[in-house]
Amino acid sequence: VLPLVDHNKIRYESFHKDFFSPSKEVLALSKEEVLKRRADLEIRVSGGETPPPILDFRFMGFDAKLKLAIAHQGYKTPTAVQSQSIPIILHGHDL
């Protein structure tokens, strides 16, 4: 059994939670293109600066090892949930 930890008594170093750098292709999307992607995928989002859905694992910002593992499992494209949620999570936003 692990001992209980009072995180209020621990001073953690702050860090920047944005781990995602969109590709040129994603940055070039217009607002209308982003809205169309979401409509095509039947995705609804709320909140402020929500990153666009990514339709290809190559543009998710994953390292080569993870991309290879995804391809090895036979995944070609992210699901609708993955295409929107992964960029949100990598940006450090709540989901």
Keywords:
mainly alpha; 4 helices; single chain; 37% helix; globular; 95 residues
Note the topology.
Elements: H1 24-27, H2 31-41, H3 64-72, H4 80-90
What does this structure look like?
The chain is mostly helical. The protein is built from 4 helices and no strands. The chain has helices spanning 24-27, 31-41, 64-72, 80-90. It is globular, with a radius of gyration of 17 Å.
Major sheet attributes = none
The computed structural class is: mainly alpha
- Written as H for each helix and E for each strand, in order along the chain, the element string is HHHH
Mean pLDDT: 91
How much helicity do the residues have? Answer: 25-40%
Number of strands: 0
Shape: globular
User: What is the percentage of strand-forming residues?
Assistant: under 5%
Low-confidence stretches: none
Distance between the termini: 30 Å
Compute the CA-based radius of gyration. 17 Å
How many helical elements? Answer: 4
